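debug: dumping io for the single-chain case to check the tokenizer round-trip. Nothing else runs in this session.
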Amino acid sequence: MNFSSKLLEEAVDAFASLPGIGKKTALRLVLHLLMQPAEAAEQFAADIVKMRREIKFCEKCHNIADEMVCNICQDKRRNEAVICVVEGIRDVMAIEETGQYKGMYHVLGGVISPIEGIGPGELNIDTLIERANLAETKEIIMAISPTIEGDTTIFYISKKLREASVNISTIARGISFGGELEYADEVTLGRSIVARVPYRK
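debug: decoded output
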């Protein structure tokens, strides 16, 4: 792809570095911004910079938040006795879209994957154990993608929770093995949460 402007090329490269964005799509987005009033492009850039600088991670569940504690953890209507453990923030959004779950969340930040150099220490597991030992916690739902790494993570966490007085369950296998939770349709994901089953090691 030939560019008559180095500035245009650098902008296209920046957009193309985003996941799922190829060079042609990046060029279309950049040209769209270029055709907008300068104020609109500047506001777009300012919004991205502000998000990156000011966004926080909930000190309780590790979800994204505008304050130190996210909106879900602050919501008194949620069931604090149930904690749904997920890999990432997009999984929280996917489950919330189903409208089937009214408990709390805990974002691990990934799954155990020795091949990628991700061990338990790189994940938010210790804070989950702390929450599981609180009196109000009665159930931990393992809503982790059904992959080898996901099953390994569930097994590891269940061993760490052995001393905690909580029930451990997993989402029903409406999600096919090897599938990613965030890509499941809302109906299937919602049913998998509702029809969760006790976890047996």
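debug: round-trip ok. The chain has two domains: 6-54, 70-198.
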